């Protein structure tokens, strides 16, 4: 036996300590997930009272549905654009805040505050900011009528969504990246400076390589989070419209299941989405994670 | 001996409990002034008698109310009475979760219900499944003050006249002559019904679950194409084209001059107009050359859910009886603009001496609209996954309004996607007969 297992004198104590949390996960995660997978093999009547086993038929139908693929494609576009921006923007801010520039200390605090804002609240605020008549882009519309119309133009609505997501992601990613930057010993900067490396050179050759673990973490979290957490924003800003242009998978599942009472269709899509997220995360660890050097 | 006394006492208490008050719950989905009116009715019922007590629980919207009802029913913890909206009718009928209201209350004179409000909630045999409650229908609203300013003396009644008026308004510098949100209920269902057009075969599904959508082949397709053209011309605006971002708000603020809207939004509009503009409300416009048929009932009706105690069902009956009274219906109409559902209410309004009062403005016109000559295609809509189809319709037509596809292509797509929903619904309820 290794020394680690001697940490607890009673062998049931660790189990007991973990049990409440495991119970919560079981009730709020495993049970619903199991239910979703179960329903995805049935045609389920909304009020119960009858369900018909159809095997893989639901999957065959969903996978041959062009609407599903369009929503999946939108999800991927959102994931790539929104999450890369949600890491890039905090990275720039963190690099700036890490330097001993004027106002960097208050800026660090101010940038963290939005973490306390719920997704739906962000949605409400951004819906207002990007309103074509009263928002910040309204003056643009006065000169070029109709150029900014998120209520009509799908691309504009999508941009609004990405912007809101990136804004909402700043605080957490900023904190992680800044912490990474601050843990780089000053001596490394000084050594690089003495070797004649300018500020830009030091960012690319010293800082970025050394905060790779932090960047990787934020990127992995962002990738998975952007798939699921866009819901609150879509629900408050666009309702999936116009014309379905912002209907990401997570929102489509909600609409099909809870507005349309199509429990089987929504469950099938949930199962597919979950497998997708698992594959994605696993792929990141397998291909990206390996290249990261955690030693310093 | 002692045990038998105890048993007797227990039995007595049980009986006493059964006779005594039933505390029942009623779930509804409305908000705003409608919610206020519903709560007032609940309070009035509780104050009027001491036998039963109803607790009215607002759920925030029709859809949320339905979601919660489904969850509650599945977990065997559901209310006795629940309000559902028109589009959920078929789901409820096939759910086996509700008892037809006419079975519970066989002695009520159900024929006193106006035909237009009945047809939607009837079985194929003509039995009423739920009690129509907050009934609305589509009406045509104008801002008479703005119309007169643009030199339009006569309130338009046909689409030709509406567009003619819209052109005059635009020429007079009005930015938003006619406003709509392109909602399925307004631009497709009510339009098709009053023009006598089906949206699906088998009389919109009344004759069987194997119906198919036909909306892309009827005159409704031409109308929707017209709307796209009129929007390009600047005569018709959508939600997103208005400053208010919402068509009723845009009309109420005076931003837009004409709209097709639910009678249920009348009270809010009239209040917003007070002292600023004159409002008119009439039947929704027709195309020239088409005979006018009835508009469909909208809003919602009340269902009695299955498997509750007799005392609770008694409470539910008492509450339903209460709501059916002309005075209660008048109060709801006055507060909201919803249309009365039984024929005796119009008489009661006339007798009250306030027949011409603005608070009853929607009553006569709404009933008149719903009581126009009917066809088999204007009874209502009985199509599966219909709520989901409404989403599909909106999604496809929005793309057409944005110019990404033609309206005809949008409707063809809506038909294809809609038929797929119908087939799946048919399969989900395999072997179930339409009541």
Q: Percent helix among the residues of chain A? A: 55-70%
Strand order of the largest sheet of chain A: 1-2
Point out poorly predicted stretches of chain B: 11-19
Largest sheet of chain A: 2 strands, antiparallel
Tell me the strand percentage band of chain A.
under 5%
As an assembly, this protein is heterodimer
Strand-pairing-aware structural class of chain B: alpha/beta
Query: How many structurally independent domains of chain B?
Result: 2
What is the arithmetic mean of pLDDT of chain A? 87
> What is the count of helical runs of chain A?
12
C-alpha-based Rg of chain B, rounded: 23 Å
Count of extended strands of chain A:
2
> What series of H and E elements makes up the topology of chain B?
HEHEHEHEHHEEHHEHHHEHEHEEHHHHHH
Strand % of chain B is: 5-15%
**CATH architecture call of the largest domain in chain B:** 3-Layer(aba) Sandwich
- The general outline of chain B is globular
Helix content of chain B: 40-55%
Please tell me what the overall shape of chain A is.
Answer: globular
Largest sheet composition of chain B: 6 strands, mixed
Signal peptide (chain B): 1-21
Protein name (chain B): sn-glycerol-3-phosphate-binding periplasmic protein UgpB
Family (chain B): Belongs to the bacterial solute-binding protein 1 family.
Pfam families (chain B): SBP_bac_8
Name a few traits of the molecule.
heterodimer; A: 296 residues; mainly alpha; two-stranded antiparallel ribbon; B: 435 residues; alpha/beta; D-Maltodextrin-Binding Protein, domain 2; six-stranded mixed sheet; five-stranded mixed sheet; transport (chain B); signal (chain B)
Provide a concise account of the structure shown.
The complex is a heterodimer of chains A (296) and B (435). Chain A has 296 residues and is mainly alpha-helical.
């Amino acid at each position: 036996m290794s020394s680690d297992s001697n940490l607890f004198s009673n062998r049931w104590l660790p189990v007991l300590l973990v049990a409440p949390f495991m119970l919560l996960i079981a009730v709020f995660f495993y049970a619903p997930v199991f239910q979703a997978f179960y329903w995805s093999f049935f045609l389920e009547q909304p009020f119960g009272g009858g369900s018909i086993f159809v095997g893989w038929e639901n999957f065959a139908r969903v996978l041959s549905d062009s609407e599903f693929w369009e929503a999946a494609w939108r999800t991927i576009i959102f994931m790539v654009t929104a999450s890369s921006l949600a890491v890039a923007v905090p990275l720039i801010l963190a690099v700036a805040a890490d330097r001993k520039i004027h106002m960097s200390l208050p800026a660090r605090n101010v940038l963290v505050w939005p973490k306390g804002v719920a997704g739906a609240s962000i949605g409400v605020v951004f819906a207002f900011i990007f309103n074509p008549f009263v928002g910040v882009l309204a003056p643009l519309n006065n000169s070029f009528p109709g150029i900014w119309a998120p209520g009509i133009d799908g691309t504009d609505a999508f941009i609004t969504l990405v912007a809101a997501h990136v804004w909402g992601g700043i605080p957490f990613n900023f904190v992680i990246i800044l912490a990474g930057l601050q843990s780089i010993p000053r001596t490394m900067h000084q050594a690089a400076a003495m070797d004649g490396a300018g500020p830009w050179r030091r960012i690319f050759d010293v800082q970025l390589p050394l905060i790779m673990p932090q960047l990787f973490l934020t990127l992995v979290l962002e990738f998975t989070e952007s798939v699921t957490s866009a819901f609150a924003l879509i629900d408050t800003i666009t309702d999936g419209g116009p014309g379905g242009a912002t209907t990401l998978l997570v929102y489509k599942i909600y609409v099909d299941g809870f507005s349309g009472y199509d429990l089987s269709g929504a469950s099938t899509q949930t199962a597919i989405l979950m497998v997708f997220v698992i594959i994605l995360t696993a792929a990141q660890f397998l291909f990206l994670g390996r290249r990261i050097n955690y030693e310093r | 001996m002692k045990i038998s006394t105890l048993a007797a006492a227990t039995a007595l208490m049980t009986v006493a409990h059964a006779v005594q008050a039933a505390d029942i719950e009623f779930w509804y989905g409305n908000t705003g002034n409608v919610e206020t009116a519903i709560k007032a009715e609940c309070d009035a019922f509780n104050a009027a008698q001491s036998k039963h007590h109803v607790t009215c629980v607002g759920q925030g919207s029709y859809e949320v109310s339905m979601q919660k009802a489904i969850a509650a029913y599945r977990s065997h913890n559901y209310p006795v009475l629940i309000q559902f909206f028109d589009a959920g009718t078929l789901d409820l009928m096939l759910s086996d979760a509700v008892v037809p209201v006419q079975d519970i209350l066989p002695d009520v004179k159900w024929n006193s219900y106006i035909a237009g409000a009945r047809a939607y909630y009837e079985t194929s045999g003509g039995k009423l499944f739920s009690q129509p409650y907050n009934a609305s229908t589509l009406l045509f609203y104008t801002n008479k003050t703005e119309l007169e300013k643009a030199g339009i003396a006569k309130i338009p009644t046909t689409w030709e006249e509406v567009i003619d008026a819209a052109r005059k308004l635009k020429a007079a510098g009005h930015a938003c002559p006619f406003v709509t949100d392109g909602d399925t209920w307004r631009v497709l269902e009510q339009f098709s019904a009053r023009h006598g057009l089906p949206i699906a075969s088998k009389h919109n599904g009344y004759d069987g679950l194997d119906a198919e959508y036909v909306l892309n082949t009827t005159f409704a397709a031409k109308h929707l194409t017209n709307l796209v053209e009129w929007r390009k011309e600047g005569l018709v605006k959508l939600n997103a084209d208005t400053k208010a971002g919402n068509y009723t708000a845009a009309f109420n603020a005076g931003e837009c001059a004409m709209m097709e809207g639910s009678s249920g939004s009348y009270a809010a509009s009239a209040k917003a107009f007070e002292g600023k503009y004159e409002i008119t409300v009439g039947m929704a416009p027709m195309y020239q050359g088409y005979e006018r048929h009835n508009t469909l009932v909208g809003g919602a009706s009340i269902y009695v859910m299955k498997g509750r105690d007799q005392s609770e069902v008694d409470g539910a009956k008492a509450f339903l009886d209460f709501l059916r009274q002309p005075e209660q219906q008048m109060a709801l109409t006055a507060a909201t603009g919803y249309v009365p559902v039984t024929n005796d209410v119009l008489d009661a309004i006339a007798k009250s001496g306030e027949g011409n009062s603005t608070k009853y403005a929607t009553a006569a016109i709404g009933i008149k609209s719903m009581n126009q000559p009917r066809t088999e295609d204007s009874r209502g809509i009985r199509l599966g996954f219909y709520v989901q189809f409404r989403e599909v319709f909106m999604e496809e037509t929005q793309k057409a309004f944005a110019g990404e596809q033609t309206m005809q292509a949008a409707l063809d797509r809506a038909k294809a996607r809609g038929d797929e929903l119908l087939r799946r619904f048919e399969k989900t309820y395999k072997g179930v007969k339409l009541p």
